[in-house]
Amino acid sequence: MIGYVTLGTNNKKNAEKFYDELLKEIGGGRFMETEQFTAYASSPGKPGIGITIPFDGKPATVGNGTMVALQVDNPETVNSFYNKAISLGAKDEGKPGPRGDSGFYAGYFRDLDGNKLNVFCFVSKK
Fold first, then answer.
1. Does 19 reside within a domain?
2. 79 is in which domain, residue-wise?
3. Is residue 60 situated within a structural domain?
4. Could you tell me how far CA 68 lies from the centroid of its own chain?
5. What is the number of domains present in the chain?
6. FRET partner for 90 with CA separation of 20 to 30 A, picked from 110, 113, 116, 123?
7. What would the pLDDT profile of 49-93 be if each residue is shown by its tens digit?
8. What does the pLDDT read at residue 126?
């Protein structure tokens, strides 16, 4: 159902460097660009993430309670993706690990503009 989400940025060049490096960890890359907006996806027909300078000309702000969740295949990818985000300057919001007993495994971080993201997978319960 989700086509793409956008995250505001106040420094598009820094945000692009961050997302260029981070999203290639899971096969993502740029597929659409304008002066104001850059979109990323694993292919044009898949859900994506866009970064944008707000169209109203006001500074980008972080949504309280807003988060983008990126699904991957396994805990190893969760770990490596989270670690890559941190190495690129993201701030920790919850180290990777199981959450509850539902098989949900996730790591949480904030990007350079303070937007909250997580990377997660489901693991089979034994």
1. yes
2. 4-54+66-122
3. no
4. 6
5. 1
6. 123
7. 999 999 999 999 998 889 999 999 999 999 999 999 999 999 999
8. 64
